[in-house]
Amino acid sequence: MRVFKGEVTALPPDKSISHRAALIGALSEGTTEITNFSAGFDNQSTLGVLKSAGITLRQEEVDGAYGRRIRKVVIESTGLWSFQPPSDPLMCNNSGSTMRMFAGILAAQPFASELIGDSSLMKRPMKRVADPLRLMGVAVQLSPSGTAPMYINGTKELKPINYRLPVPSAQVKSLVAFAALHADGESRIIEPVLSRDHTEVMLGLKSIECDGERVIVIPGRKALAAKPFFIPADPSAACFIVALGLLARGSEIIIRDVCLNPTRAAFLALLTDAGAGLTIENQRVIGGETIGDILVENHAGLEPLVIQDPQLVSFIIDEIPMLAVLSAFASGQFELHNAAELRTKESDRIDALVVNLQRLGFDCEQYPDGFIVKGRKITPSGTVVIESFDDHRIAMSFAIASKATGCPIDISDSDVVGVSFPNFFELLESLEV
Ligand code: S3P
């Protein structure tokens, strides 16, 4: 039987907050210091495109908590319009957040630019980016299927916008907010279903309640003063370690300094309600974000997870792959609805989960907005080949199941974990007793 014990102090810094800290730093007047910036490929892609668009920045290693060396990023900028025309297309690699959020900033710069990505990113929907930018007066061109390459003919004359988000997407919300900061007047974003709110927290944006919906108010052409940022550990990365502890009986793991923002940490309550032994300790607020330690203890068994509330789906969108695999292995069952957005991620995650769970002997059925796991028909005797579909969260979800339960799997392209969790395999090794 496999058991995992220990203290996790080296979880990757939050990917969403790292992207935003770099982008906001590039928009702010003065020197922005970001402590504990993520080394993940996605966040490095954001630094790469900022540099290519003329922003001065450097990364250095400094002493952090628990005797660890951590990354500090220092950005120098003159404010909202400090970008320069890039000489080549801006390569966002695998990072949808980089492409979408930076598009909102490029739309407001008085030059043309082109955004491209790897083969996965070039398939992801970008019409949701182009639509609001066009309403603000920007010429945006996409491929006939609504994907990158994205050509943006930026303008300093952006019109303010009142925009109701057609899909619950924090990336779209953020790109509209970043563009609106440059507009000639106040803009409003209406969020029928809430999504992660780091951009609002970090920019100090006001939000009001209107007819039961959240409305975010963005003042136009207001200079941002540089301020320091500290990046807490990534709750989406913590979810993998939580699942490891819950799947391997007798485990006891404490994960330090995790971002517990309610728009990100809903998976913890979901798991607790299903019987998981989770305790939050040492809770405090740093830079507007709630942070704390997660203690994962052996559990007496987990009830099958049934996820259907659209608001919950939005709050746990990145954790669903791990939650599905955890629920399937722990209880034999899982059920998901209202999650069609999962088909637009780094891979079609509904299909990727179903295909791989079926290879592991689970009886699954998929439908447009979700899937169901009805039980396990067989437990394969040999090694099962898992297809990562070049998706970091698919690779890590099945790697956790294998590590915790001992079921032998072989993951195609496991290096893809570096997109968000470069020290993933090393950390798992360090926790095994
Ligand atoms: C993110 C928002 C989500 C999430 C992604 C990161 C962000 O995407 O899946 O990993 O940092 O804003 P959507 O905005 O497409 O929902």
Q: Termini separation (Å)?
A: 10 Å
Q: According to CATH, what is the topology of the largest domain? A: UDP-n-acetylglucosamine1-carboxyvinyl-transferase, Chain
Largest sheet: 5 strands, mixed
Class by SSE composition? alpha/beta
Poorly predicted runs are none
* Number of domain modules: 2
> Proportion of β residues?
25-35%
For the record, the CATH class of the largest domain is Alpha Beta
Spatial extent as radius of gyration: 21 Å
- Which small-molecule ligands are present, each listed once? shikimate-3-phosphate
Helix content: 25-40%
| Principal-axis shape | globular
Please, what is the CATH homologous superfamily of the largest domain?
A: Enolpyruvate transferase domain
Number of continuous helical runs: 13
Verbal overview:
With 433 residues, the chain is of the alpha/beta class. It has 13 helices and 23 strands. A hairpin with a 2-residue loop joins β20 (362-367) and β21 (370-376). The mean pLDDT is 97. The chain binds shikimate-3-phosphate. Shikimate-3-phosphate binds at residues 16, 19, 97, 169-171, 174, 196, 317-318, 341.
